[in-house]
Amino acid sequence: MARINENYLKLKAGYLFPEIARRVKAFAEANPTAKIIRLGIGDVTEPLPEACIKAMKAAVEEMGVRETFRGYGPEQGYPWLREKIAIHDYQSRGCDISAEEIFVSDGSKCDTGNILDIFGDDNKIAVTDPVYPVYVDTNVMAGHTGKANEKGEYEGLVYLPITAENNFTAAIPEEKVDLIYLCFPNNPTGATATREHLQAWVDYARDNEAIILFDAAYEAFITEPSIPHSIYEIPGAKDCAIEFRSFSKNAGFTGTRCAFTVVPKNLKGKTRDGQQVDIWQLWYRRQSTKFNGVSYIVQRGAEAVYTEEGKAQVAALVKFYMENARIIREELTKAGLKVYGGVNAPYVWVKTPEGLSSWEFFDKLLQQAHVVGTPGAGFGAAGEGYLRLSAFNSRENVIEAMNRITSTFNFN
Ligand code: MLT
């Protein structure tokens, strides 16, 4: 009989979001008339920007004509898309990133997991707690950890607590680590990092020859001008950071699939015997072997995000969701709950009331208000006592959800 990858057996029962979906399905089956409002998974609800639709339709037409038909595209993504990303997302912010350093992909979730292919098995890995579960689970799958303890913390990982006391930004570790996952604006807490905080991380990474895996999937939601959108706005970051970005949340591509990863040309790792190796070369080799690129049609859709029309439509989408975030924050605050985030991120991090655990509060909201959140404990031990609400929904649903929560419970 074929042997399995036993690391999978170390994983906690289910990936967080399918587990929530399972509980919600069970509730819906038992309560078929309940109108459930989902503010759990951060999945967009509003239609794609018109500019993207137009570009994708035109691309479909091209695919139907022999002269303009395309087969396999470049594994790294079409140069016209990478050029636009480099100019609009980086060079316009003073970041020295070229098209060659950009790898277009079908998602940041996949890329943050796949990136482990090019790193060794003996790195010391740091994650924040709470954390986007993909960073942890993919390391477990790759055999980079031992077993989980009763709190769900895996042996071998360095957990950096992010709490209200440290403004949800982790303290720089005392010990030496090799890979650090950072996500700003943060999923799940909605916190952001100042330029000074990111500079401290870059300095740490350079001093310790570590690499920062910087997930900036939510950068479009930053509203405060002083907050950096990219790690490459920080001097020295090109020597020590890989950045993940996505069209999922800003342009509504969660179902369309397009993202990109930036691997600077001068970023280095080393072999066991100390020889320096270009990380770019390894990622290029990995992608061209295991990935055939994002469809031409979708890349044309992503390219349209950078047109004047596209930029305005994306900005309107972001503004729409951030207004939802404002409503959630303000209504819950008025109702007596302590909330964080939701100012530069589409997530509101809510302190559970009355000493309820995350899952108790989740169940209470589901059963009594028919509103779905994400239990903070699902993001790590330090997320216990919190619940995340997503601003990705229609205005009507957000207002209705807030009315239900505030009229069902008295938190004061
Ligand atoms: C979330 O809810 O945390 C996100 O939807 C996860 C993701 O983008 O994969």
How would you characterize this protein structure?
This protein is of the alpha/beta class. The protein folds into 2 domains: 7-47 and 315-408, Aspartate Aminotransferase, domain 1, CATH 3.90.1150.10; 52-308, Aspartate Aminotransferase, domain 2, CATH 3.40.640. It has 11 helices and 15 strands. It has helices spanning 16-30, 50-63, 79-90, 108-114, 133-141, 195-208, 279-290, 296-303, 308-334, 358-369, 395-408, and strands at 37-38, 102-105, 125-129, 157-161, 179-183, 211-215, 241-246, 259-262, 268-270, 276-278, 339-341, 347-351, 371-372, 374-375, 386-390. It has a 7-stranded mixed β-sheet with strand order 2-8-7-6-5-3-4, sandwiched between helices. Strand 3, helix 5 and strand 4 (157-161) form a beta-alpha-beta unit. Helix 9 runs parallel beside helix 11 (395-408). The longest helix has 27 residues, at 308-334. The radius of gyration is 21 Å and the shape is globular. The protein binds D-malate.
Write the layout of secondary structure elements.
Elements: H1 16-30, E1 37-38, H2 50-63, H3 79-90, E2 102-105, H4 108-114, E3 125-129, H5 133-141, E4 157-161, E5 179-183, H6 195-208, E6 211-215, E7 241-246, E8 259-262, E9 268-270, E10 276-278, H7 279-290, H8 296-303, H9 308-334, E11 339-341, E12 347-351, H10 358-369, E13 371-372, E14 374-375, E15 386-390, H11 395-408
Parallel strand pairs: 1-13, 3-4, 3-5, 5-6, 6-7
Antiparallel strand pairs: 2-8, 7-8, 9-10, 11-12, 12-15, 14-15
Helix pairs in contact: 2-8, 3-8, 4-5, 9-11
The structure holds D-malate (MLT).
